[in-house]
Amino acid sequence: MAEEELPAVLILDIGGTHGVLEDLAALLKKHFHLITMKEFLGNKEEMSKKIQSIFVFECRPTIDRELLESLPNLKVIGNSGVGVDHLDLKMISSFGVKVTNTPHAVADPTADIGMALMLASARRLVEGNVLNFLGHRYFFSIPHFYCDRDDLSESIFGM
User: Fold this and answer.
1) What are the tens digits of pLDDT across the range 84-112?
2) pTM recorded for the entire structure
3) Pairing mode, if any, of strands 33-36 and 51-56?
4) Boundaries of each D-isomer specific 2-hydroxyacid dehydrogenase catalytic domain copy (predicted)?
5) How far is CA 115 from each of CA 63, 120, 149, 154, 159, rounded to the nearest angstrom?
6) CATH of region 6-98, choose from 3.20.20.105, 3.30.200.20, 1.20.140.10, 3.40.50.720
7) Hey, where are the domains in the chain?
């Protein structure tokens, strides 16, 4: 399928501080003609008719009334994150545009971080690290201060 036949999707940019990751952009290019915000603003009249979708990555580009009014063929806004709190769903739906997201995209990493934080808290890991860097090397040589064996088995069993 030629690039002109592919549906056009508006993105903020590719790479950089807030742009779509380059690997992700390569995947998107297989299915869409990517139009960056810079290209769109440089030729709004022509580009606005082509864009059927907006891909929101890290809450960008900002979806406001002015942008929606300038995209007459917009059908869907794809949000790369879990939540859609940064989007005004009522306003977007008033333009007849659908919003999608990825609700389970970070479920496993969130659980992993939660477990790591609970274990670090139970083992006073941050406290020990701070004391270690302050020069209190004896901190890790006092097992009863750092880690109570009974507490350790009960906390892991409880999880």
Assistant:
1) 999 999 999 999 999 998 877 777 888 89
2) 0.68
3) unpaired
4) 22-113
5) 35, 8, 19, 15, 9
6) 3.40.50.720
7) 6-98, 103-147
